[in-house]
């Protein structure tokens, strides 16, 4: 579904590459989580996958970017937006400014694609119910909190039903309950065959919902694998990437002789509960 091969990129007038020799494969109908330190190039990678680079941002892009069978590095931005929906970190910058109500804002993309009015209304109502924002539909997008605006921005992409959705820290403005709801929605969308790439710092939720994790560091993707394997990797610290509290607890237990080195580090609460219960019973 998504295939990046030997991709490198430099912004206009930049003296150095932001990303270099990036290879990435994401299977259809999966959730790929991408993590990395601030400034590692995650937003740049999100824009490349979504086709906004180089078509909107300019600069020099080399390599191949294929999404749903299309080469987005050589096509147009119009081609890209028909297959990839992009949710950016700051929802205020994603609000169109052309509509007076949330309902109209969510329908804006459908309107541009020439979707029949009855279908537009039905799809807006469906996505509003999915994200539990029906009570916001008649309000102005600019009269909302940052978290509410973020949910509207997410709804505006989901409603398009593109085969791929790319999300750059989509829960940054949301409280814990809103964050969990969004991740639950993404898992539900995966079941419909939509492919999701999510750039996030909330590692415990990525562990629960992502099929694979990819680490961005040193201007490339330096590690890919199953979430449990990636989050337990000792090299994350050198790349300034955190891990879950359960991995931290496991490492402390090892240092104090409470967890044998041959026992895998727990990554989730359930794993930690099993590991420490078993070690306690042995002792």
TrEMBL record:
<comment type="similarity">
    <text>Belongs to the ABC transporter superfamily.</text>
</comment>
<protein>
    <submittedName>
        <fullName>ABC transporter ATP-binding protein</fullName>
    </submittedName>
</protein>
<dbReference type="Pfam" id="PF00005">
    <property type="entry name" value="ABC_tran"/>
</dbReference>
<keyword id="KW-1003">Cell membrane</keyword>
<keyword id="KW-0067">ATP-binding</keyword>
<dbReference type="GO" id="GO:0005524">
    <property type="term" value="F:ATP binding"/>
</dbReference>
<dbReference type="InterPro" id="IPR015856">
    <property type="entry name" value="ABC_transpr_CbiO/EcfA_su"/>
</dbReference>
<keyword id="KW-0813">Transport</keyword>
<dbReference type="GO" id="GO:0043190">
    <property type="term" value="C:ATP-binding cassette (ABC) transporter complex"/>
</dbReference>
<keyword id="KW-0472">Membrane</keyword>
<dbReference type="InterPro" id="IPR003439">
    <property type="entry name" value="ABC_transporter-like_ATP-bd"/>
</dbReference>
<dbReference type="InterPro" id="IPR003593">
    <property type="entry name" value="AAA+_ATPase"/>
</dbReference>
<feature type="domain" description="ABC transporter">
    <location>
        <begin position="2"/>
        <end position="243"/>
    </location>
</feature>
<dbReference type="InterPro" id="IPR050095">
    <property type="entry name" value="ECF_ABC_transporter_ATP-bd"/>
</dbReference>
<dbReference type="InterPro" id="IPR027417">
    <property type="entry name" value="P-loop_NTPase"/>
</dbReference>
<keyword id="KW-1278">Translocase</keyword>
<dbReference type="GO" id="GO:0042626">
    <property type="term" value="F:ATPase-coupled transmembrane transporter activity"/>
</dbReference>
<dbReference type="InterPro" id="IPR017871">
    <property type="entry name" value="ABC_transporter-like_CS"/>
</dbReference>
<dbReference type="GO" id="GO:0016887">
    <property type="term" value="F:ATP hydrolysis activity"/>
</dbReference>
<keyword id="KW-0547">Nucleotide-binding</keyword>
């Amino acid at each position: 579904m998504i295939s990046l091969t030997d991709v490198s990129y430099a912004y206009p007038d930049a003296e150095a590459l932001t990303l270099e020799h990036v290879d990435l494969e994401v299977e259809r109908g999966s959730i790929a989580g991408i993590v990395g330190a601030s400034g590692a190039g995650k937003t740049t990678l999100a824009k490349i996958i979504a086709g906004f680079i180089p078509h909107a941002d300019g600069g020099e892009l080399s390599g191949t970017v294929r999404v749903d069978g299309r080469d987005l590095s050589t096509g147009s931005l119009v081609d890209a937006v028909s297959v990839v929906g992009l949710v950016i970190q700051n929802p205020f910058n994603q609000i169109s400014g052309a509509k007076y109500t949330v309902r109209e804002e969510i329908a804006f993309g459908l309107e541009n694609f020439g979707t029949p009015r009855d279908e537009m209304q039905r799809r807006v109502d469906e996505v509003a119910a999915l994200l539990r924002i029906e009570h916001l539909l008649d309000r102005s997008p600019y009269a909302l909190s940052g978290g509410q605006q973020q949910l509207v921005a997410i709804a505006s992409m989901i409603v398009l039903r593109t085969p791929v959705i790319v999300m750059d820290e989509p829960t940054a403005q949301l409280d814990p309950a809103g964050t969990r709801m969004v991740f639950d929605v993404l898992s539900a969308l995966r079941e419909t065959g939509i492919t999701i790439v999510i750039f996030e710092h909330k590692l415990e939720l990525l562990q629960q919902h992502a099929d694979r994790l990819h680490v961005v560091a040193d201007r490339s993707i330096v590690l890919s694998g199953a979430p449990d394997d990636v989050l337990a990797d000792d090299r994350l610290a050198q790349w300034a990437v955190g891990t879950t509290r359960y991995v931290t607890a496991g490492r402390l237990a090892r240092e104090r002789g409470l967890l044998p080195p041959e026992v895998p580090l727990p990554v989730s609460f359930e794993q930690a509960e099993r590991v420490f219960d078993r070690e306690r019973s042995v002792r």
